[in-house]
Amino acid sequence: MSNAGPRCITPSFPAAASVTTAEPTPLEQALLRFRSHVDPGASAYAGPPSDLPAHWRDYLSQDADMRLACLQGEMAVLGEYLPQAATAVRAGAEDAFLLTSPSTGLLRCVMRRQGDALYPTISAPPLGQTLPDNPAARLLLREGPEVLRWIQTTLMDGLTDMWGFGGPLRSARLTSMAAEIDTYAEADWFDAFSIDRDPSRVIEIFASGGGGYLLVDLDDPGLTGTDPQALLVMMKEDAPPEPVPLYPWLDEWTAIAHSV
């Protein structure tokens, strides 16, 4: 008989199953961002299709491919006027759907991939024939460049990130140089500029979020022509407003802001 003590037997247990957490859907990610940064009351739109513009109704589809096809159609129309911007939005899009919140109302949200994350690009529905309450928007829609008026009344109202930067501003966010006097009056060029122009009729239509702006002067006689001019303002450079072609600059800057 062996004098060896009892052997120590180490019990074995089945390996624990690995627990994986499903990645939030694009809609869930959009709502998380909006509720954290824009409006805690944001939700998916649940109203009737009849309340929507006809070309937005497929954004209510349960089929993501159909929703993206709806976006492709909308961007194809925008691409006739702002081709680089339309291409940039299409290229990064992984989903598109409708959101609503008490502070913003109805929005079409495109979730675009930039690096490892999805970011929202938003538009309000086209305005139709109803003039908004915002005085700057009313002026622009009455007297502004024809293509901008058509886009905002017929196709979409604005095309920006969720903070309102990086594209044509929604009508609710349009403003005048006079309304933003605290910003512009700090520039050395403002006093001389305001002698020859009426700041209340110089409308800000694009804000980069980094101090770059595009504005249109409604008293510019060429504004309603085929090649209207915008005023480029770079506040960090403190240079006087520079006349630039409106649509090429609006197109390129929007495309840069929405590029993958």
For the biggest β-sheet, the strand order reads: 1-2-3-4-5
The amount of helix comes to 25-40%
Succession of helices and strands = HEHHEEEHHEEHHEEEEH
The largest sheet, given as strand count, sense and whether it forms a barrel, is:
5 strands, antiparallel
Number of helices: 8
Distance between the termini: 77 Å
In total, the number of strands is 10
Overall pLDDT confidence:
91
Strand content: 15-25%
Low-confidence stretches: 4-11
- Using only C-alpha atoms, the radius of gyration works out to 25 Å
Structural class per helix/strand content?
alpha+beta
The 3D shape can be described as globular
Summarize the structure in words:
The protein has helices spanning 26-37, 64-78, 83-92, 135-143, 146-155, 181-184, 190-196, 246-257, and strands at residues 43-44, 93-101, 105-114, 117-124, 157-161, 175-176, 202-207, 212-217, 229-234, 242-245. With 260 residues, the protein is α+β, with helices and mostly antiparallel strands. Strand 2 (93-101) and strand 3 form a beta hairpin. The model is unreliable at 4-11 (pLDDT under 50).
Highlighted features:
alpha+beta, globular, five-stranded antiparallel β-sheet, 8 helices, 260 residues, 10 strands, 22% strand
